[in-house]
Amino acid sequence: MSPSLGRRAAAELVGTAVLVAVVVGSGIQATELSRDVGVQLLANSLATVLGLAVLITLFGPVSGAHFNPVVTLAVWFTGRKGGDGTTAREGAVYVLAQTVGAIGGAVLADAMFAEPLVRWSAQDRSAGHLWLGEIVATAGLVLLVLGLARTGRAHLASAAVASYVGAAYWFTSSTSFANPAVTVGRAFTDTFAGIAPASVAPFIAAQLVGAAAGLGLLALVFGRTAPAATAAVVPRGGTEPAPSAP
Fold first, then answer.
1. Alpha carbon 198 to chain centroid distance?
2. Distance (Å, rounded) from C-alpha 116 to C-alpha 200?
3. pTM, 2 dp
4. Are 227 and 146 in contact (CB under 8 A)?
């Protein structure tokens, strides 16, 4: 039997909160240990890769481990016609839980390092090349998550998604936020991983464009029809069969 929506929402909230705490906390720690920006980014990306892999492994059987509104929206979009994927109501609950969790995770990281609990970031990230980086990062993420499941390899998501995110830190100009909830959460901290509130909306717009591009690439490469349910990044627990699409 599939976990209740309440339990799945709790998993999304806690998972996203911990993910943002890892991103923000490791960024703070890195800047305290080194003044070399390259070393700081390396430490930040490595911690994110390891943390994300653990979180997907832990929470995947409960909620599918989306931790990301664009993944939830993509899952809903691809499964809406068959009626066997994430419903609009479930998607709305997921997105709310992810956003609340992201804000809470940023506040928690600030608290752990004795930073002001809420201080708007001053890091301006408004530039066309950064938005392009977000489009590329998000398109690749959506293609990866849904493509793995289309080919029956959703069980590899923890390693594959974490690896992609780690690589995208380095090959995209924006350092791959690729997540609207995380973008909102990172506005609440004026630290290494922060983003100025004025930069949030353009980043999210670019991420939504990237999600649409990822869905287009999915249809181009794997076809328009999903072979099975599209409910999770990794199969949820219970007695239902494992879906072949997230």
1. 21
2. 20
3. 0.90
4. no
